């Protein structure tokens, strides 16, 4: 059948193992392999680079370099007209101005991610939201960085009170807009939009809308094992 993968008369071991499990739940599970040695060849203001000597399943030792990251939050903020609040910002490593959703670092170890998300929405868009839910959790680049991101859904938006946050550096050139979800989806599928949080957030928003609905999403204070926090 066109589009189907055929393994011939005997399926590979991983397929047979899966079939033997029956209705197995697909879920990532924590696991930590032995580290024989570790060092930090670079330490920056917010992130660092770590080198670990990791014991492989066959007993050999492999060296793995990766970025150590405090974690991040991002916000898919949807207004009453179904538009998503997006910002356009220069990102020097990729030499592009990217359309993104409001996002920022977890600056304080153990910081409540909801509080961080509310802060970012205020600072980058001068907007507040009354309804918050967890949209999706992800590791951005697990092969080379331990960054974990929690993306929130924010609804019932209104203009924030008080002074606007004073921006600097790349943020001084930042643009702000509200774009219909369908237009963002078109841009994602056309390859015109590339920011990982925007892409993941938009696709997750549409999936949730077409699934059990946005009110079925996890509460804003749902546990986050990747970055534990106090309520």
From TrEMBL:
Biological processes per GO annotation: nucleoside phosphate metabolic process; ribose phosphate metabolic process
UniProt xrefs under SUPFAM superfamilies: Nudix
Residues annotated as domain Nudix hydrolase: 67-201
Highest rank taxon of the organism: Bacteria
MF GO annotations: hydrolase activity
Entry keyword set: Hydrolase
GO cellular component labels: cytosol
UniProt keyword annotation of Aminoacyl-tRNA synthetase present: no
Annotated protein name in UniProt: ADP-ribose pyrophosphatase
Organism ancestry: Bacteria, Bacillati, Actinomycetota, Actinomycetes, Kitasatosporales
Name of the gene encoding the protein in the UniProt record: nudF
């Amino acid at each position: 059948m066109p589009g189907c993968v055929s393994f011939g008369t005997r399926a590979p071991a991983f397929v047979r193992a899966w079939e033997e499990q029956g209705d197995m739940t697909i879920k990532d599970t924590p696991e930590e392999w032995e580290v024989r040695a570790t060092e930090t060849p670079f330490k920056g203001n917010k992130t660092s680079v770590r080198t670990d000597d990791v014991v492989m399943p066959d007993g050999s030792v492999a060296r793995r370099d990766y970025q150590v990251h405090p974690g991040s939050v991002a916000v898919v903020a949807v207004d009453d007209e179904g538009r998503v609040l997006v910002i356009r910002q220069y990102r020097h490593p990729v030499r592009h101005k990217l359309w993104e959703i409001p996002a920022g670092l977890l600056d304080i170890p153990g910081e409540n991610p909801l509080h961080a998300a509310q802060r970012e929405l205020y600072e980058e868009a001068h907007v507040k939201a009354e309804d918050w839910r967890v949209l999706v959790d992800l590791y951005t680049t697990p092969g080379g960085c331990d960054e974990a991101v929690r993306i929130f859904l924010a609804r019932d938006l209104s203009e924030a009170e008080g002074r606007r946050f004073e921006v600097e550096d790349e943020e001084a050139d930042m643009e702000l807009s509200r774009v219909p979800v369908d237009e963002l989806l078109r841009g994602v599928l056309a390859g015109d939009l590339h920011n990982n949080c925007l892409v993941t957030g938009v696709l997750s928003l549409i999936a949730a809308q077409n699934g059990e609905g946005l009110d079925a999403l996890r509460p804003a204070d749902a546990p986050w094992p990747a970055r534990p926090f106090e309520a």
